[in-house]
Specification:
- The structure is a homodimer.
- Chain A is of the alpha/beta class.
- Chain A folds into three domains: 44 residues, 434 Repressor (Amino-terminal Domain); 131 residues, Rossmann fold (3-Layer(aba) Sandwich); 139 residues, Response regulator (Rossmann fold, 3-Layer(aba) Sandwich), CATH 3.40.50.
- In chain A, 44% of the residues lie in helices and 17% in strands.
- Chain A contains twelve helices and twelve strands.
- At the A-B interface, α4, α5, β2, α6 and α11 of A face α4, α5, β2, α6 and α11 of B.
- Chain A binds a DNA duplex through α2 and α4.
Chain lengths: 331, 331
DNA sequence: CTGTTAGCGCCTTCAC
DNA sequence: GTGAAGGCGCTAACAG
């Protein structure tokens, strides 16, 4: 493995000049520049990143901490972050917390040990409660989850509003007695609950919510139990794609028909939501955009550490399908 | 940020002793060990990984190179690899090639620059053609894709056999005129094609295959075109989950009914395959297991660089559902 | 504009 | 059993 002094020797210059040329610093004569480039190429020189990182005190590494990449929402975020990061010569370290604050703390410690340049984080509810970027030795951009008053860069959906619109859509389509199944362990779930409550209140309706763990299995079994004690509501809302899937599976198990007996709606426009019969009405999140916005925000913050805290709010889009078809009031 | 000399000073010992204690080396007096541990704790000392990596020449980092994490198959692999890697104090760098040999080469170069401890790779067809682990400065474990004669550790499904079983299932259920849509850009797709051909030949039937790019969009439009020129076959097989989804979307577009007019089957037991009506018959891959086996194989190889090349073959499981329901010969 | 040199923080011989 | 000292390969002052 050739190293910098070999290149210097081959080009007949000092290591400093090699370093300068390779770092793209201005103020090097064209003649030296050419000789260094030629020598580096001839020797197939690759700078030792460990040495560079030790000396320069920068790692060009970004941490991405989410609950679970297997959640399609985070899968897409992850892909977007990686695309943009690599384009900018950064590496990405991906970590899954499973909504477990201990794992989260472990990975945040790891980020410190790695001396990462920045972190994109989807925090647990516990961590978000009194989260401040300033508590960390690296810039942090929150993604998907953020409170109104959180002092940190963030990229989120307009959760309250989107849930309000989705709930209103149900009400206007003749489903006033509806129930929200929401992921109580995340800020996002809570905000969607808020939007739901507001929409119900605006129409003078009685809200009903079921807090669940945001996994397919838990949502399914919670819904299964729920349907064992009638009366059944006229419509369901799921606060994310995993819960939505769990609800649908439960409805199939107990043989309640959508949309004849119950309407079904939720968040996340996953492929299957338009393949099942009937298609499911959802709020589509611009997931790739969210991830892209997050990494871009982080790169800006890295370049300008002192810039004002920013929040990017993206709008969810209501996609009406047959699972919430209009209906006259029953009973 | 406290460093090793601070700990040494605080403990009243030399940096060498601190290093020894923290590395868990034997032959340090209990008294020093205690003082060092106390000092490290008191100062919240974290070893600088960049310095350690430069000095030790090991990065404890693993590269994971796949075509696209958004393919649920690779999402799950990724999660498995990360779980096991972190448990063993390794980091993971994830890269997406999009089946593009140039990106693949770029990321493999990056792995070299990063001086990774090992790589888990799902190679493009082009790279696999004459792939040899020995050509790389780090151990490589192939995942999902591998030829019969490839000289490299690998973890794969029993592709030929699984396709054979799936095809036979169709034939025995009264669907002799079936067509395979396969991802021609991957070894996996080609091997599943092989199993398909073998099963058709064994029954004296005429095979028919359509090579597609393994994305939902391309599979959909290819299938759409396909259905514009009758006669239609009695059954379809998709060589992976993305293609399967594309086929189903196309069938919906042209209003061909499953299973009445055509049977539909494929690989990958994704959540939606049992939610659509009818449920889709598939070969389920033990995806998490595949990822887990790959990282474990890599860790073994790292520990024992000279051990014999290993191949782990996992069995796909046929899950029969209504999309391939038994039928009497038509016409 | 170019070269010399002093570390970045740690591990690991080597003496004691 | 313990400490002193020399690098790992590179970058960034500082001279010239």
């Amino acid at each position: 493995m050739a190293q910098i002094k070999d290149v210097a020797h081959q080009a007949g210059v000092s290591v400093a000049s090699v370093s300068r040329v390779l770092a793209g610093h201005a103020g090097v004569s064209e003649s030296i520049r050419q000789r260094v480039l030629a020598a580096a190429q001839a020797l197939d020189y690759r700078p030792d990143l460990a040495a560079r990182r030790l000396r320069s005190r920068r790692t060009d590494t970004i941490g991405l901490i989410v609950s679970d990449v297997r959640n399609p929402f985070f899968t897409e975020i992850s892909r977007a972050v990686e695309d943009v990061a690599y384009q900018n010569h950064f590496r990405v370290i991906l970590c899954n917390t499973d909504e477990n604050p201990e794992k989260e703390a472990f990975y945040l410690d790891l980020m410190r040990d790695e001396n990462v340049t920045g972190v994109i984080l989807s925090p647990t509810l516990a961590l978000l409660a009194d989260f401040r970027s300033a508590d960390y030795p690296f810039p942090v951009v929150l993604v998907d989850r953020c409170d109104r008053d959180t002092a940190a860069d963030a990229v989120v959906l307009d959760n309250v509003d989107a849930a309000y619109r989705l709930t209103t859509h149900l009400i206007e389509n003749g489903h006033p007695r509806n129930v929200l199944f929401y992921g109580a362990a995340s800020a996002t779930g809570c905000q969607r609950r808020e939007g739901y409550m507001a929409a119900m209140a605006a129409h003078g309706l009685e809200p009903q919510v079921e807090a669940v763990t945001a996994t397919v299995d838990h949502a399914r079994s919670a819904a299964h139990k729920f349907f064992c004690r009638p009366p059944h509501p006229e419509a369901l809302i799921a606060s994310n794609g995993l819960i939505l899937l769990g609800l649908l599976e439960a409805l199939r198990e107990v043989k309640i028909k959508v949309p004849e007996q119950i309407a079904l709606t939720g968040f996340d426009d996953l492929p299957w939501t338009r393949l099942v019969e009937p298609g499911i009405t959802v709020i589509a999140q611009p997931t790739y955009d969210i991830g892209q916005a997050a990494i871009e925000l982080l790169l800006q913050r890295i370049a300008q550490p002192a810039q004002a805290v920013r929040r990017v709010v993206l709008r969810g889009e209501l996609r009406e399908r047959d699972s919430s078809k209009k209906r006259n009031a029953r009973r």
